[in-house]
Amino acid sequence: MISLKKIKKEFIIGNQVVRAIKEVDLEIKQGDYLAIMGTSGSGKSTLLNILGCLDVPTQGSYEIEGNNVVDLDDNQLSQIRGSQIGFVFQAYNLLPDLTVLENIKLPLIYQKNRRDEDDAEAIRLAHLVGLKGRLDHKPNELSGGQQQRVAIARALINNPVLILADEPTGNLDTQTEAEILDLFEELNAMGKTIVVVTHEDEVGERAKRVIVMRDGLIQSEKDNNHE
Predict the structure, then answer these.
(1) pTM for the whole thing?
(2) What is the pLDDT of residue 20?
(3) Helix (H) or strand (E) holding 148
């Protein structure tokens, strides 16, 4: 489903060239659950930004469902982000003046194929992530875990082929973290493809595969056997 080949990413800062990703090959199959780990500056967030079409590589190819992202313009990249990728962030990124239901439906505003059943789908997803009875609440009336559940439902509203989560449990206590990771496992069991960037071993252990990045390279990869 996703193929990265000889990906490099460089940034120019002042008169210096920073090689954030030196060369990475990575395959992600439909239904995979991958954790990307590494210390600060290892390149994991840059790799996530490339996977999410928020940034394009300096060199190499990135194909998502047959589309080579490197060849696309900004509008085409935006279309792929809106229709094929769901994002979950550490800071939730909810709009404070909107209700839970309105926040979940937010990505649909940018899509042209809006449907009458969008409300029903948003309600279904809210129930799926455990927010029944919270649809009319504003973010400031929710706990951190509930806000992250809203963010996960919002990431699912366009039925994306890929869910990207950037430190999704970083602001949560241990019990709530476990609940959110249980939810990710449930979504993965339903067939959703999930990639999580994390520095927490507990989060990495819940994924099916873990890659560890260091100095812009994949240092190691392992499969987690949960059987």
Answers:
(1) 0.91
(2) 92
(3) helix 144-156
